[in-house]
Structure prediction request, 401 residues.
Amino acid sequence: MEHYYHLVETSSAIDIGHVEVAEDARSFSVKRPMSFKGVMVLLTSEGKPVFEANAFILNRRIVQGVKDINPTCFHLLRYYRFLDANRLKWDDHEEQLQRYPIFLYRAYLDGQIERGKISRNTAVAALSIARRFYLFCYRHGYISELPFEITGVTKYGQTLTDCTIRSQTRDTNLQPLNDLDLQHVRDNWHYNGLSMEFRLMVSVMLCVGLRAIEVADIKPDHFVIPKGFNSKTLTGIWIGPDHQCKTKYDINRQVSMPVWLMKSINQYHQSERYKKRQQLYFMSTGDMNPPAFINKDGGRFTTQSLNTLWGKLRKAIKENSNPHFKHKQHDCRATFGAYKLDSLAKIPELSMLQALEMLKKEMGHKDLDTTMLYLKHYEGSPEKNQVPEITMNLLEGEALT
Prediction:
């Protein structure tokens, strides 16, 4: 049987005043008590009171005079259960980790809103209680600094911070493709004159998580499989300015690739089609180190040309398979990120924060706040779990030589 943080009601009235303990230390009395309506207190899974949380609850009832204390108690319970499920501490003393528990919680709430599990108003209230809890702990010396920045105060005296539920209109550009979307991609990517190179590049973006600027500059050497390597996925493949592949922010980083995809692209690089394009590229540029994918005119693909080709694919899908298909080319990368986070989160030895740090490094994000947006698409949704199987079949039947 699993145990969780839980709430327990006090007596209907609680007396606050000077406490005198009996000489035998077995009893106490409250002198000149002031009586207040009872509250619910937070206990650990072992039944021990959580001091800081309960001090905050009592402060809300007694000092601030909050009449209905139940929402505070339940939102605080939600936060502590979230922390416990992700093996986080509300007051982690490591400098790198201090900021992120409440921001992870914000991303989680954002995801719950998108999935329709809670209303925006409920999420706003839940995050507000978490912020108020930290402000209370800071003012009373339980923590030395706040995990968020105070950006101002409203005319009503409310504190403004950089940790808020995002507005409903904010576009995160994160819309992973589900299994049906991927099937529609495969069913339609031969229409509208879409080339084999485009299909291979889409496969790389889906399975490796590269940006358009990166997949357009990656080299054949990045797809070489070491001799004697027999596993399904090759890790530790370097890309970046020091490794002959452009990346955003010029960050050198390591990525992983499924071996089946590397074999398919190696097969393509041995084809007469690629060799002819390679010659055209050399004749027009004099560059002896061509990219892995070259267009029919012997030039490089660009972010703009990939977006144009994706627009043609999207049009074909809307005409033939799904009139509601609105995915952008960047959603291929989002699909990889959502699946990768889901896979990392299933490793028992990794906390959610550690999983996000690993994903941040592989995807080349500049800061962890960007990576935390992927929490919106975490929680083991079945569409992401289909990604490996679907993508493994993407190139099935393709003539690569």
About this structure: The chain has two domains: 6-161, 179-392. Residues 6-161 form a domain with the DNA polymerase; domain 1 fold (CATH 1.10.150.130).
